[in-house]
Amino acid sequence: MITGEADDVGRAVADAHRREWAYVLAATARVTRDLDVAEECVQEAYGVALAAWRRDGIPRNPAAWLTTTARRKALDVLRRDQTLRAKLPLLLEPEATPYAALEGEEESVLPDDRLRLVFTCCHPALAREAQVALTLRLVCGLTTTEIAQAFLVSETTMAARVTRAKKKISAARIPFRVPAAEELPDRIDAVLTVVHLLFTTGHAPPTGERLVRDDLVERAIDLARLLVLLMPDEREVRGLLALMLLTHARRSTRVAPDGRMLLLEEQDRSRWDREAINEAREMVTDALRGARPGRFTLQAVIAAMHAEAPTYETTDWPGLLQVYDLLLEVWPTAVVALNRTVALAMVRGPGEALDAVEEIERSGRLDGYRYLPSTKADLLRRLGRGAEAAAAYRVALELADNEVELAFLRRRLTEVSAQQE
Q1: Which of 122, 141, 339, 384 has the fewest CB atoms in 10 Å of its CB?
Q2: 240-295, pLDDT tens digit by residue?
Q3: Which residues lie below 8 Å from residue 21, measured CB to CB, with a gap of 6+?
Q4: What CATH number has the domain bearing residue 360?
Q5: Does residue 140 sit in helix, strand or coil?
Q6: What does the alpha-carbon distance between residue 359 and residue 219 come to, in Å, rounded to a whole number?
Q7: Is residue 411 predicted with pLDDT exceeding 90?
Q8: Of 91, 114, 130, which residue constitutes the final position of a domain?
Q9: In angstroms, what is the C-alpha Rg of the chain?
Q10: How far is the C-alpha of 120 from the C-alpha of 241, rounded, in Å?
Q11: Which whole-number Å values give the CA distances from 165 to 122, 139, 188, in the listed order?
Q12: How far apart are CA 380 and CA 365, in angstroms?
């Protein structure tokens, strides 16, 4: 044990929650075979940790301590349930108890408890959005607010969605079990969506003081690497891992030493992680072989084209625009359409790109999305329409909560406002 003050214990518990939640919940869920019970036991374990670590010191392996505590609580729940069933056999329907799993957990084609739980939450009996939201909440430890922002819905709507998914698992008696090997391909798209949203939330956190949450990014990349080992023939799995490696390769250049956010055109490309870029480039090449590429592979192609360009100006913008057009055919979402306007502005000018942004805006599909008004503001700024740009930056400021992004938007607003004086 490592002794420490109360503040140190609080930080240790918070750090363990951020880094180890997925491991602890997954290990506990293997015992309970019930996600609600597992979550309750894990939450209790973290609560117990606050008092126990202050009294006994911070353990050298917090994850192991928390897992042991949570599983012991799960054992108590299962024993009480088993005792109740033995005393009231006529009042309860007979059903298979998960208690037997304690004697010897089954072998699985899934090499990691977290990944096993991801696949379990992505059960086909649940609606796709419910699968993804439930997994992000339970497995990845994202808050309801973070998930709601990723889905572009209100926090209330997302909370209800997660609650309904849990109730359906309970009411339908969906078992907590490892999917058979032949079932994995049917769940892969939902699983990839989860991992991608986890990475996106870490790469551009909607709230907080940091531009990157390394714990979420690293967790997503780790899960993607496990998926590649599990399903080496799935091209979209390699495409997703490549996309994340290429994007994360720029991590050290996204913020200046003084804390300013740096746009892609401002970043020092000599500091990008070339080892990660080279690894990803090989994956992209492999993923492009064979049938028509999917959405993650095409996004990886876009990221690779940015990574290989010597400068922002010499990027193959016409080629990028073509890839975006292909991506829109495969994945026709408003976010893709918005991202495409960046390449459109470089190829055909900011005026045509602004027309495309305003069409998306009129559709209402991205209402509340913080990058819609900021993209519009930048195009208006480039067109010399300062007053309109300032108005759009103010809208963007109302939607943003990340401190680094807020500081960037305030600087832009100050710049365009000064030009009007």
Answers
A1: 384
A2: 999 999 999 999 999 999 989 999 999 999 999 999 999 999 999 999 987 789 99
A3: 42, 141
A4: 1.25.40.10
A5: coil
A6: 36
A7: yes
A8: 91
A9: 24
A10: 21
A11: 11, 14, 19
A12: 21
Q: What is the DSSP letter of 261?
A: B
**Euclidean distance between CA atoms 241 and 252, whole angstroms:** 19
140 occurs within a structural domain? no
Question: Which tens digit of pLDDT belongs to each residue from 114-141?
Answer: 777 788 788 888 888 888 888 888 777 7
Contacts of 214 (CB under 8 A, 6+ apart): 202
Show the CA angle centred on residue 314, arms to residues 312 and 316, nearest 5°: 100
Q: What is the CATH number of the domain that holds 87?
A: 1.10.1740.10
Domain count, the chain: 2
Q: Which residues contact 157 (CB under 8 A, 6 or more apart)?
A: 148
Residue 204 lies in a domain: no
Question: What phi and psi, each to the nearest 5 degrees, are found at residue 401?
Answer: -130, -15
2: helix, coil or strand?
strand
Give the E-state strand segments of 277-405 in sequence order.
Answer: 401-402
- Is 403:208 a contact under the CB 8 Å cutoff? yes
Domain boundary among 41, 56, 91: 91
Q: Classify residue 289: in a domain, yes or no.
A: no
Residue showing tokens 């390394």: 214
Which residues make Cβ contacts (< 8 Å) with residue 116, sequence separation at least 6? 26, 30, 108, 110, 178
| Cα dihedral across residues 310, 372, 247, 256: positive or negative | positive
pLDDT tens by residue, 55-83: 999 998 998 999 999 999 988 888 876 66
Whole-number Å distance between alpha carbons of 18 and 12? 10
**Cα separation of 121 and 136, whole Å?**
9
Neighbours of 362 (CB within 10 A): 8
Compute the distance between CA of residue 190 and CA of residue 350 in angstroms, rounded to an integer.
35
Q: Which residues contact 87 (CB under 8 A, 6 or more apart)?
A: none
218 domain residue, yes or no: no
Cα separation, 243 vs 283, whole angstroms:
9
Owning domain of residue 404: 316-421
Residues 104, 95 contacting (CB under 8 angstroms): no
